[in-house]
Amino acid sequence: MKKCILLWMVVLTAMGFTACESNDDDYSLGKYWLSYGVIEGEEDSFHLKLDNGEILFPSATAVPTFPIEDGKRVLANYTILDEATGYEDIDYLVKVNWLEEILTKDIIDLTESNADSIGNDPVQLHDIWLGGGFLNVNFAFDGGGTSHMINLVRVESADPKGPVQLELRHNRKDDDDHYWVKATASFRLESIEEAQKDSVEFVVTIKGYEDKSHTFNGTYVYGSNEE
Question: N or C terminus: fewer CB in 10 A for the chain?
Fold first, then answer.
């Protein structure tokens, strides 16, 4: 039987997430939240901007050696210490319990020259959602012997006035089937913005196992942090 384990490969494991609730006054050191967000600032002065727009200031951290980089996307496990009353542009003071870097990539155009290297191997789709200006995909694949490659590509559409056509592409690089590898990747959506519009519709096609396919229809609202 194949086992499902966590591996640090080309993509990183994701867990579930919840946002802060501003009406929760019962902040306890025994509670924690999981949220996706982006680091803003540098190591000596940074905060976390969550996908829902809330800002967390790390008053304490249990991961002092985690490499802090402005713009790095992370999955954060944190404990809310208090609301940041009196702090400008900060919503909560938190203790960071751990941070996990999330693979973050731009959308690329699919061409004849890159089609082979992009690959078209299947994935097992677990979840797909919009958040923080990213298309986020949680998936799994058979492998474990070598690094795989995942990309979101834009393909030419027969209807230029229709939704932007995107495909999730996976290259297993001839890896053998060892076990199921879980992964999450986030793709920046700025490149599909169209001039003189404030939103754009898109369709993502994902090749699954056993000749199954999945389709996700979305609307990217420019600058939106809503999931």
Answer: N
